[in-house]
Design a protein that fits this description.
The protein is of the alpha/beta class. It has one domain: NAD(P)-binding Rossmann-like Domain (Rossmann fold). The protein is 35% helix and 19% strand. It contains 8 helices and 12 strands. A 7-stranded parallel sheet has the order 2-1-3-4-5-9-12, sandwiched between helices. Helix 1 packs across helix 6 and helix 5 packs across helix 7. The radius of gyration is 18 Å and the shape is globular. The structure holds NADP nicotinamide-adenine-dinucleotide phosphate (NAP). The site of NADP nicotinamide-adenine-dinucleotide phosphate has 26 residues, from helix 1 and strand 4.
Length: 253
Amino acid sequence: MKIVVIGGTGLIGSKLVKRLQAKGHDAIAASPASGVNTMTGEGLAQVLEGAQVVVDLANSPSFEDKAVLEFFQTSGRNLMSAEAAAGVRHHLALSVVGTERLLESGYLRAKMAQETIIRESGIPYTIVHSTQFFEFMFGIAQSGADGGKVHLSPAMMQPIFSDDVADALVDFVLGSPLNKTVEIAGPDVIRIADAVGQYLRQIGDTRDIVVDSQTRYFGALLENNSLVPSPGARLGKLPFSEWVKTATPPPAH
Ligand SMILES: NC(=O)c1ccc[n+]([C@@H]2O[C@H](COP(=O)([O-])OP(=O)(O)OC[C@H]3O[C@@H](n4cnc5c(N)ncnc54)[C@H](OP(=O)(O)O)[C@@H]3O)[C@@H](O)[C@H]2O)c1
């Protein structure tokens, strides 16, 4: 089956493409690096020719409110109209657990806009809501960085390993469109401040951690369980406590 993975060079995209190819599918990693740009529409019609399934795993280069909204709206519209023209039968996208309750966040408003475009497109779809990837801990730390301190929320999270995300996506990609949102998460619930704190200590980052319930998560004030999925979410296997023991700094650090 021809499966186009938009953002197929990214963290999750590259793992998904490998897994689908290993199962014998014609999985194609599409991104600006391979001449496919969802913002401009460049290369979209060509790459989608003959594709049955499209998985959108692209992310915005900027998380600034206006830029990220423009990224997900423009990319979403360009992609869905190119898919309609190509006769794509299943569109999948990865979004964030709790998006609908955290619309104070500019990033999550943009993800909500992406989801709305998908739901209104008329193309059969599956939206997978994931919790935070283990690999995103540094990103969360940087969002609360203030000189030598890192401000973090005491709210709970249930982060997931990127391999477990990719494994779940394989099943959803090879299944029928669900025309709804499904949730995936890691096996354990942990405080954001504890998870990020453990990660920073592991990579030798000695900044002070300030736990403060008024600290916003990418613009949104969190309730204790805002980032935690509903019962019934599909759970990954690797515990955060195992992963963090061998975690390394992000590549550009
Ligand atoms: N981080 C988290 O904890 C988390 C949690 C839940 C859901 N998500 C969602 O998961 C998705 C994947 O995240 P990720 O961390 O795997 O992303 P990532 O590693 O940052 O990769 C982003 C991908 O998007 C591609 N891209 C950027 N601009 C593009 C454009 N104009 N047209 C086409 N492709 C473009 C990049 O291509 P190049 O390599 O060519 O630049 C890259 O392949 C995102 O949609 C995110 O919202 C993330």
